[in-house]
Structures are given as structure tokens and as C-alpha cells.
Amino acid sequence: MRQNKTYILAALLAGSIAAPALAQTEVTAGVMRGKDYGVTYMLPKTEIEITLQLVRHNYTPGRFCQYAGRYLQLNNVSADAETHWTLENIQMQSVGVPDRDQTYFVKLKDKTVAPLMELTEDGIVRSINLPFSGDHPRPQDTSAGAGRKTPLPDPTRFLTEDILMASSTAKMAELVAKEIYNIRDSRNALLRGESDVVPQDGRQLKLMLDNLQLQDRVLTQMFSGQTETDTTTVRLRIAPEEMKEKVVFRFSRKLGLLEADDLAGEPYYLSIANLQTPALPPLTEDETKKKKELEGVAYNLPGRARITLTQGNHPLLEAELPVTQFGTREYLAPVLFNKNSTIRVLFDTATGGLLKVERD
């Protein structure tokens, strides 16, 4: 269905391109209804997208956490379970979304050389008279569990009979610590070539070393505890306007990402400065009337903005990004599509601006 929608003019072109007389391609603002054939498209407007990579850390104390310092020299090991969040990465970019107020209809008249248009799934114009570019998968707004690791095996698999039959927790912790040191001694012996068991080749040596390292990690976590991490990516969208140090979100080590008005977290501020300083005079009544009688294909000439994200007094990100709302709107003259040659146009679907215009 999408391909049929995108190439709605393809079948109509076949019967019209060979006609000797050429009529203008008519473009009107708004959604056209009735019996007219053509393509309705939209121009995009800009939103600022802030991508946050959040990591949740879940700490579970080990069974022998109170003996970690005595037997393994592991100090400051907590005996209390804890969950906390960290903000690992922040990225910022401008993205385009359909602007319902900038909807246009390219009408196909009889004996016209009307353009063949390709639209995005959202109805934003992508190209004119260019080959179909194929499907463009949409990025996911959120993704969870990207940083989740495979859990380690049950440590009881590596406990000997003497350990399991120990009369007290303290005695069991002592025997497990000795087992850890024995594993480390065996690994060192393999690395030095002093082991009684000689591996047949390098692959078998690697398997033996990996198995000893796994046992070491699993048993050591009975003292140090285990921290599981879960990574979540969140994308925030903000409609750009001139602003100074506006709170866009808050973050708490204990609670994670919070709304801008939740005082339980530290605020993150966004500032947007319009770099197009000269202000255009307002349109007269006659100019406004002419705008409603369009002839040509509308496109955006985006402006630019300086965008800064700060936390407290610390700047985190600063970039100059294109912003459609700070720019102007222009039109491709209809004469471009009424000659005995093909005009090919490529648009930036994020801004609605021109990327390329070429003629055969």
C-alpha cells in the first residue's frame, strides 16, 4: 500500500508525458478534495531529541559478605541490598516531524509533466523524480535491557563435599576462600606451564583457563556480592523555541529519570538561542493572499539554533542544529517541471530543506 501511495502519479504520467502541449503543475496549500488527482504532502517541523542512556544497578550482598575482609581482603563490602541509577551517556540532535499546518497538494492536470513524488510513511516529501529509495525503518523511542548480562551459574555447583558439610557459616566461608585460592594457584600453574595436567593445544588451554576464571568469579561473589545492570535508552522530544535554562528533566541516583517538576531529582537545563537574529517584517494583506495561491513546490529553508544542555553550572552538550521554525519557506518555480527535461529534487526529511536539485 505504501508504494502505491508513494507513486500515485506514476500511472497518470504514462498517458500525459507525450502530449505536445504543456500545462503548469498546480500546487495548493491544504488538503485537496474532490475529483482532482495528485499527491498531498507535508513539510516537516523540527523537534529537539535528547537521547539518555540510563543504567540501573541492582546490588545483592553475598552469602559470606561479613567475612570478605577477613578471608579475601575485600574491604567496604556492604551487607545491604541496594539499587541505584547512573546516567551514562547523553546525545542531542534535531529531528523532523510532520507539520499539519504545512500541507500541500500537487495537482495533476491534463497534458502536464507533473512530478513523480516519494513520501515518507508520515507523508513528508522525500524526493521528486528520483528512483524509489526503499523502506526506512523507524528508530525505537525506547529500548530496555540492552545492557543486561547473562547471569552467572549457581555457586553451589562448584562447592566440594567438605564445604557443603561445614558445621557453621564461618567454617564454610573459610573453606570457600581456600577453594578460591586453590583455583587461582591452578590457573597460575597453567600459565607458567607447571601444571600436572598438560593441555593438548592452545584451544584446550583456553577452555581450562576460562573455566577456572568462571569458578573464581562465582565463588568470589559469595563474598563480594553481585551487581546486575540493566540499560535503558530514553528519547525526549522538545519543541524548539527561544528559551534560557529551562528544566527539561530531572535525574536521581535513587529514582532514576524524573519529570521536570519532580523536585526529588537534580535538574537539567536546556537553553535555545535563535542564530537568525534579523526579524522578517510581517506580510501585508496582499502578500498573504498571494501566499494562498501557490504555484510551485514548497520547501523549507531552515534556520539554526545554538542549543546547550547543562546540569548545575556544568555544560554537558552544546551544538548548533538546524531548526525549521527559525527559518523561512520557499518554493520551486513550476517552470522547472514544465520543460522537456526531467528535474530531480532530493529533500532533507528532517528539515524539509533542499539537498540536491539537478536536471537531465
- The oligomeric state of the chains shown is single chain
Order of helices and strands: HHEEHEEEEHHHEEEEHEEEE
End-to-end gap? 30 Å
Poorly predicted regions? 1-23, 140-147
Largest sheet: 5 strands, antiparallel
Radius of gyration: 33 Å
Structural class: alpha+beta
Description:
The protein contains 7 helices and 14 strands. It is α+β, with helices and mostly antiparallel strands and 360 residues long. It has a 5-stranded antiparallel sheet. Strands 9-8-10-11-12 form a 5-stranded antiparallel sheet, with no helix packed on it. It has a 4-stranded antiparallel sheet with strand order 4-5-13-14, with no helix packed on it. Helix 5 runs antiparallel to helix 6 (202-224). Residues 1-23 and 140-147 have low confidence and may be disordered.
Please describe the structure with a list of short key phrases separated by commas or semicolons.
alpha+beta; 360 residues; five-stranded antiparallel β-sheet; 21% helix; disordered N terminus
